[in-house]
Design brief:
The chain has about 425 residues and is mainly alpha-helical. It has 19 helices and 4 strands.
């Protein structure tokens, strides 16, 4: 099928320059994740620096997650009204700026403000970049590229402990917040040369009123996807955010090394390799089995991984358990860029998908704090097990009864 537009002929084979569009979007998401996860390896250092209890530092993760919907609404609105590229460029430079400012915060109050403002930029980025990539790429590659986009998140997480291992010993903890700034400039430059989305040009809303009308017309889909994303983000953050701190509580990990590197840093690197693997495999699988079945298969793997992931006491068992866990959790997430964008209305795809994702993040934002409180009551292994088992089963139920629009055309009106 081909349609004529002011931008020229467009088809399901993507647009010229789509590889540059997808690459720039993925690089920015890697950077976004890196800037978020650096902090989880610095809980103790930050608590000492600002003379506050560690739980206060942990709670700033909740603040960052809670401010993300503001960014999704703001930047998503701009992207649906004025195009994908320019809001993406501004967004990546914005969140990188506040990451740098975090590193030079003179006191805890300024640190908290910077993490909250950073969350706005983080919240804006995913919705636009995912819509941009899905709209510009050939539809036959949508599944694998969905996995590749989402694999950027664990890759950013993987690079965070690498930076901690290399940069912090040489330059101090503040330098960890400066590491990604040059990458932001590269991403912005690539986006400046990438093409605009012709799907956006075809469905561009005539006014803000048109956009709000489209949102109201699809409110039932919005509410379902919001429930789905809240459960999935609880699952993801519950499996990741406190896990490095959990590893510190295990004597064999604290004293162990792998290939000459301290085990508490190697294990996160290894399980994020599993996350990347899972996102790619299940994203690609979803092109053949459908989005829902691929997600449920990934969630089944996550359930099987809970015993070695939470109760392992040797480095080898924890490596295997955490690898399986993140293969399953991020495997489910690898399907989400395609699944969410295919279920989003054409005229407001960026703001719809982005706001659903980030409001889900808002509802999931207490998950780290709740899990930390469960740890105080039951100990880490049981706390991790209870939280992840409940959220995984809930997620399976939600997906089982949900809709699907796999491989639908973005060039036809929904």
């Amino acid at each position: 099928m081909a349609l004529g537009t002011a931008a020229g002929a467009i088809s399901e084979d993507g647009i010229k320059g789509w590889r540059l569009a997808v690459t720039s979007g993925i690089l920015g998401w890697i950077l976004d994740a890196f800037d978020f996860f650096v902090i989880v390896f610095l809980f103790d250092a930050l608590a000492r620096q600002y003379h506050v209890p560690k739980v206060w530092i942990v709670s700033t993760l909740t603040l960052t997650l809670a401010t993300r919907p503001v960014g999704a609404l703001l930047f998503g609105f701009l992207a649906d009204r004025y195009g994908r590229r320019r809001p993406l460029i501004f967004c990546v430079l914005y969140f990188s700026l506040f990451t740098v400012l975090t590193g030079i915060a003179p006191n805890f109050a300024v640190f908290v403000i910077c993490r909250g403002l950073y969350g706005i930029g983080m919240g804006g980025y995913w919705g636009i970049s995912a819509s941009y990539a899905m709209e510009t790429c050939p539809s036959r590659f949508r599944g694998i590229l969905s996995g590749l986009i989402q694999a950027g998140y664990p890759l950013g997480y993987l690079l965070a402990p690498v930076a901690i291992q290399i940069v912090v010993p040489a330059f101090g903890w503040r330098a960890a917040f400066f590491t990604g700034a040059p990458v932001a400039v590269v991403v912005a430059t690539l986006m400046a040369f990438a093409p605009e989305s012709t799907a956006w040009e075809l469905h561009r809303p005539a006014s803000a009123g048109t956009m709000f009308g489209a949102l109201l017309d699809h409110k039932s889909t919005f509410l379902y996807l919001l429930l789905m994303m809240a459960a999935l983000l609880c699952l993801s953050h519950g499996s990741q955010d406190l896990y490095p701190d959990f590893l510190k509580s295990i004597a064999a990990v604290q004293s162990g090394t792998v290939l000459g590197i301290r085990a508490p840093l190697v294990i996160p690197i290894f399980y994020n390799i599993g996350a990347i693997f899972g996102a790619l495999v299940f994203g690609h699988l979803s092109q053949m089995t459908g989005r829902r079945w691929a997600i449920m298969m990934a969630l089944g793997l996550a359930l099987l991984a809970i015993p070695p992931w939470a109760f392992g006491r040797s480095v080898k068992v924890l490596l295997a358990g955490s690898f399986m866990m993140q293969t399953g959790v991020q495997g489910a997430f690898g399907v989400i860029p395609a699944h969410l964008n295919e279920l989003s209305p054409d005229r407001v795809r960026s703001v719809f998908a982005g706001t659903v994702y980030q409001l889900g993040s808002l509802f999931a934002s207490p998950s780290t704090t709740v899990e930390y409180m469960l740890r105080d009551r039951f100990g880490y292994p049981l706390a991790l097990t209870l939280f992840e088992a409940v959220t995984t089963v809930l997620m399976v139920i939600i997906i089982w009864f949900g809709p699907e629009a796999g491989n639908r055309s973005f060039l036809e009106n929904q």
